[in-house]
Amino acid sequence: MDEFMLIFRHQDGKKIASPEQIQIWMKQTMDWIGGIAAQNKFSGGNGLPFEDARVVHHDKVVTNGPFGDIKETIGGYIVVKADSVEEAVSFAKGCPVLQGEGNTVEVRRIAKSDGIH
Question: How large is the average pLDDT for residues 40-65?
Fold first, then answer.
């Protein structure tokens, strides 16, 4: 069984939603993760707060935030155990982040430290 990272790409919710709506989204996300955990397929994950985010560029210039000129950024991730990328994608399809138009969940297999992957 492999592990896959589900990366949430979306706008900063605090800029587009009320605190009450954010609480609803957080509960939906925790319920979604709970469903994956109930199948013993949840390995871990974290939110990535937008505050205090910095980007270090190739020329060592540091800028505030990961945003630049784009609206979409990485807001968090979870790691799931799955038998295939298709199973990992099926988990991703249930992610509440996808309620926002233009939001995405990127699915990436995590390289094993076995010297092959």
Answer: 86
